[in-house]
Specification:
By secondary structure, this protein is of the alpha+beta class. It has 17 helices and 16 strands.
Length: 324
């Protein structure tokens, strides 16, 4: 308020002086004006005292545009310069860096036909040649370490299939592998039909195993009920005993009321030593007997075979379906 009041008084004095000066005569104008020019700045110094723009200087003190200068300080476009700094397209350049077709080049790197070349690597016919010596089996209890089973062939006196050749049966101190897997039907010789038999006997071998047989010189027989899932031809393996050398043994098999086959065999003393199990049990496995069975229950009758000196002894039966 004081500043405004001073300004008003100064302004009034200036107006009064100007008015008095104009009322002077023309001839004194030069002197008065010169006097006014020399004295007025020192006495009045109106511009310096008032100097409203300097004291207030609202534009200079505030100078909002200069201090803030939002466009210059922020300069968002220049500092961020997203297109120049990021330059996503230039830096990433995905097509040039990845270049999937050139780096992978699956057909050239894999080249499966050249690397594998199965026919050249295996070359089974070349590696296994007939000129190589055969494997020398070392049998322990009728089986070699390589899995081979010792087999002794015996020719029967019978020709059951009427093909003009005598039947051949096989003996081994080891049960062949095909009678050990799934689908094998097992029956103990002790499980004969106790309601339908005649003259059945058993013998203890090595004091621990019982083998069943039909008494010689009689109409002795024993029957077994054997059930199979499918009809067809089955191979029969028998766990039996080889007793004496140079003596014929055999049996007759009747399946479902129809005579199927007769068996016979005889061994020399040397052959008995090969075909029996080790340990003095005299046991052996006979196989190669084929019978035809229907699906479901079957009745198998065993009797002594004619033209043989003694009836065969039985401990167990193994049946497996023939797939040939």
């Amino acid at each position: 308020m004081k500043t405004a009041f001073k300004i008003l008084i100064s302004y009034s004095l200036a107006v009064a002086m100007l008015f008095s000066m104009t009322s002077c005569k023309l001839d004194r104008l030069k002197d008065e004006t010169s006097f006014a020019e020399e004295s007025t700045p020192e006495e009045t110094i109106t511009p310096e005292e008032t100097t409203i723009p300097e004291e207030t200087t609202t534009p200079e003190e505030t100078t909002t545009p200069e201090e803030t200068t939002t466009p210059e300080e922020t300069t968002t476009p220049e500092e961020t310069t997203t297109p120049e700094e990021t330059t996503t397209l230039e830096e990433t350049t995905t097509p040039e860096e990845t270049t999937t077709p050139e780096e992978t080049t699956t057909p050239e790197e894999t080249t499966t036909p050249e690397e594998t070349t199965t026919p050249e690597e295996t070359t089974t016919p070349e590696e296994i040649t007939p000129s190589e010596p055969p494997h020398e089996h070392t049998f322990v209890s009728g089986q070699c370490a390589c899995g081979a089973v010792f087999t002794l062939e015996k020719t029967s006196v019978y020709d059951n299939d009427q093909d003009g050749e005598k039947d051949v049966f096989y003996f081994s101190p080891c049960l062949p592998e095909r009678f050990r897997g799934e689908g094998v039907i097992f029956t103990s010789a002790e499980k004969y039909d106790k309601k339908d038999y005649f003259g059945v006997r058993y013998a203890s071998v090595a004091g621990r195993h019982k083998f069943w047989y039909c008494q010689e010189g009689t109409d002795s027989y024993m029957k077994y009920q054997i059930e199979v899932p499918e009809a067809g031809t089955y191979e029969l393996a028998i766990y039996t005993v080889l007793e004496y050398p140079n003596k014929s043994y055999g049996a007759k098999y009747t399946v479902n009321g129809e005579e199927s086959l007769k068996t016979s065999y005889a061994f020399s003393e040397e052959e008995l030593a090969l075909a029996r199990e080790e340990g003095g049990s005299m046991s052996s496995y006979m196989f190669g007997i084929r019978i035809t069975l229907k699906a479901g229950a079957n009745t198998v009758k065993i009797e002594g075979a004619p033209n043989t000196e003694s009836n065969q002894l039985f401990r167990a039966f193994y049946l497996v379906k023939v797939t040939e």
